[in-house]
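Here is one chain, start to finish.
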Amino acid sequence: TIDAGDHVYEGTLAIEGEAWTYEGTSMYVDEEGTTWTGDIIVNGVRENEDVFSADMAGEISSDAGGTLYTATWDQIGTRVR
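Its structure:
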């Protein structure tokens, strides 16, 4: 589960060696009654003991309203302790 405020993504995490993939989906209904579906996929890899990198892609769309947005992110995680 990834809780992003108004969007709570439920999905699966697959791990293979040093790489991992999370695929999740979130649904919500707006004030006009349109049901929107958000999909994200995160691909990550452990670079070393202290660093991982990942890329993420997402989209929110509905049958009634089409695509609301698409986005991509690049991420770096670094151990701080």
